[in-house]
Design a protein that fits this description.
five-stranded parallel sheet, 296 residues, 11 strands, Rossmann fold, single chain, alpha/beta
């Protein structure tokens, strides 16, 4: 092979290699650089499974899951910085104040926000309204009893509806507080997926009467409507996990339901669970909903 042939081959090889180098240099950067997740146990996807609970971001008492939707979203988007402040039992007041958890103190959730935060998800309001606590009054051995209705509806006034309405300005202030601390962030507000429907329950599998299950289902719709109003008023984006969760409530079989009933056990994954909270399938649904909202 003469010198001219060798030069021609070298030139051709360089031309083939050049596009590869150029493609590497122009690789698409991450869509977001700093993601902060805020909220309560439904944001933490709280778990009692010792193999899933993590204290990477918060005290163990927050019961935050390794498989929470925020962690899935951060991984799918290859976000360089994730700070997940979500904690079981959190209320809007815990955005600006410390929350005492069973095994430590979770600093104010807003402390994780910075001016460079460009993605925020938040799921909050259920504990402010007291809906999660109300479920504890519903179990019964009598299929015709309605202990929840008897406790909350007095003289024609539904105190849970009053509580939900009172929580609305608190959720608005929370979203506005996020915007003040992270002015360039895209703020996604999640609602609560369908853990119970308005058509009734599945007594005695879940020991709540049809009357109380229907009431709980209506209150969940009211809660989500409040969150939608607050989100719109504060100028954020709503991620609707409820509307796309039909057929996956706590009465459905294992592998189909996205939220557990009263039994503190789940098959998704197998192990102890927090009653009336999303299981891993529910967390996966939340993650898919958020990713769809950002175009992934």
């Amino acid at each position: 092979m003469n010198k001219a042939s060798r030069a021609l081959i070298a030139w051709a090889a360089a031309c083939v290699a050049l596009p590869v180098v150029a493609q590497s240099a122009s690789a698409t950067p991450p869509q977001f650089g700093e993601y902060v997740a805020l909220g309560d146990s439904w944001a933490a996807d709280s778990t009692l499974n010792p193999g899933l609970v993590t204290d990477e971001f918060v005290p163990l008492g927050c019961a935050q899951s390794r498989g929470s939707y925020a962690k899935q979203v951060a991984a799918a988007l290859a976000v360089p910085v994730l700070r997940d402040a979500s904690c079981g039992g959190a209320q809007t007041v815990d955005m600006t104040g410390s929350q005492v958890a069973p095994r430590g103190v979770n600093p104010p959730q807003f402390d994780r926000l910075t001016p460079s935060t460009d993605l925020v998800t938040v799921l909050i309001g259920g504990n402010d309204a007291g809906l999660a606590a109300a479920v504890q009054a519903c179990p019964t051995l009598d299929a015709g009893a309605t202990p929840c209705l008897n406790s909350f509806v007095v003289n024609g006034v539904d105190r849970m509806s009053v509580n939900i309405e009172a929580a609305e300005p608190k959720v608005v202030v929370t979203i506005e507080g996020i915007r003040a601390r992270a002015p360039h962030a895209r703020i996604l507000v999640l609602n609560y997926l369908k853990s119970v429907g308005t058509e009734g329950g599945c007594f005695p599998v879940v020991p709540i009467s049809d009357g109380d299950a229907q009431w709980l289902g209506r209150k969940l719709i009211e809660l989500n409507a409040m969150i939608a109003r607050a989100t719109a008023e504060a100028g954020a984006e709503l991620v609707d996990t409820y509307g796309s969760s039909d057929g996956h409530d706590a009465c459905k079989p294992a592998g189909v339901r996205w939220a557990e009933g009263l039994a503190p056990f789940t098959s998704d994954p197998v192990g102890p669970a927090v009653p009336f909270h999303p299981n891993q399938l529910g967390a996966d649904h939340q993650a898919r909903s958020v990713l769809a909202a950002v175009g992934r």
